[in-house]
User: Fold this.
Amino acid sequence: MASKEVPEINAGSMADIAFLLLIFFLVTTTMDVDTGITRKLPPPVEDDTKFDINDRNIFKVLVSSSDRLMVEGERSDISTLRDDVKAFMTNPTNREDLPEKELKFIENLGEIEVSKGVVSLKNDRGTSYEMYIKIQNELTAAFAELRDEVSLQFYGVKFKNLLNEDYRKAVKKAVPMAISEAEPENIGGN
Amino acid sequence: MARFKKKKSTGMQKINTSALPDIIFMLLFFFMVTTTMREITLIVQVKPPEASEVQKLEKKSLVSYIYVGVPLKTQFGTESRIQLNDAFASTSEIPEFIASERESRDEADRGFLITSIKADKATRMGVITDIKQELRKVGAFKINYSSRKVAKLSY
Assistant:
């Protein structure tokens, strides 16, 4: 017999090689998913354009350089901010000093009262970033909860579980994310 | 009768390991696909703040990063500095940075660029405000304050 059998390649070390590569990728891998609070900045203002917003429609939040909070002219705490914003935006008893509501026709929702309220956030140059994010977080949470309410009322699911893009748009229109940031000012120094 | 005698276990039975490389390869491919090599080395210390209402940044290719924090090496000072790409930068360099980021993207994607501000939680808002003002000037309106997701914030 002339034809010799082809000798089998020893594959025993294959696992070792694979292990080596595996460990390399295990070590170099960074599985950080980037998360964060998304915001849209307003376009720059030309000159001192004054915006005509009725005073009752503005919810003023001030943060001092020592991270203390002033809400609507009174000292406040971050733990109550979320409920304050919600109470302000909904204005359940139609008080005169809380924001007006406008009857709007929104597709898929019909006629609905949309609050004209705006949350105005003003921080100092000395405010810590951590506090700023905390406040942004609370404001976002307040609006998210308001959207949840509308979404539950009309569609029976929470806003984040609402998948239909048209419905989502409708809820977003009914509860607009009305957060405005004041032009920067240096009050308390750095 | 010897024929019906139970076979006595003679030592350990050998486990068939011929499928082991396949399993390892599977894991290997998983990590190869999910891996993202770190593109820049941080020269500032960034400990992101925590937040509960975070959103995921979906398209990483559309995100440009601005890092803010105290330099890792103390000889560069203890004040918060801005890092763009691989070097320290001042706020006046941000428009240039945004322009080059736009340049490197597809024309169709340029409108969807997001600027992610990765700042240390101890940073003062002054620096952040300056960055925001610069971004407004060049029309990079979509920003993301990078923060770590926690279930609930403690006050």
